[in-house]
Amino acid sequence: MPKSTYYVTVATGLIEELQALQDKANRTHEFVVEASVEEIAVLRDLFDKQAASEELTFKRATIPYKTADQDPSTERFNGDILNIYRYLYEIGTYETKKHIEKMGILPRLLSPDYHHAGYEEQKSKQ
Predict the structure, then answer these.
(1) Is the pTM value of this prediction over 0.85?
(2) What is the pLDDT of residues 16-56, one digit of tens each?
(3) Are strands 31-35 and 14-16 parallel, antiparallel or unpaired?
């Protein structure tokens, strides 16, 4: 399977195949991946799934008495974001992998605050 270079922006879910060289100063992508058409289809599916879970999280946010702590929609959203970064790490260029490592995003998403040791103790004391 031939691979092409794609430029990815996680915040918007944008995947671009071409990036004008003269536009480097105004680049909007965060990550560069070398991927086949099939791999990009998987990435698009991950972004679609994340967008759906983001919508559920947004709907939950409008309920004033419901917190985000251990909320299934928030957990799903975090899991979807984690899957996107995992896949970007898998198909990304060396620079993309180093950038994700430097961000420290993978360990942070694996251990959100409410899963830290002591959270339940602190909650029960209140």
Answers:
(1) no
(2) 887 544 455 556 778 999 999 999 999 999 999 887 766 65
(3) unpaired
User: Which DSSP category does 3 fall into?
Assistant: -
The tokens for 33 are 């991946």
How far from 11 is each of 50, 70, 121, CA to CA, in Å?
11, 23, 35
Q: Which residues are CB-neighbours of 25 under 8 A, at least 6 positions away?
A: none
Supply 85's token pair.
Answer: 């970064």
Q: What percent of the chain lies above the pLDDT cut of 90?
A: 30
Which residue from 112, 84, 114 is spatially nearest to 100, judged by alpha carbons? 84
How does pLDDT run across 72-123, given as a tens digit for each residue? 555 666 677 888 998 999 999 999 999 998 988 777 655 555 454 544 544 4
Cα–Cα dist 71/120, whole Å: 15
> CA-to-CA distance for 93 and 9, rounded, in angstroms?
14
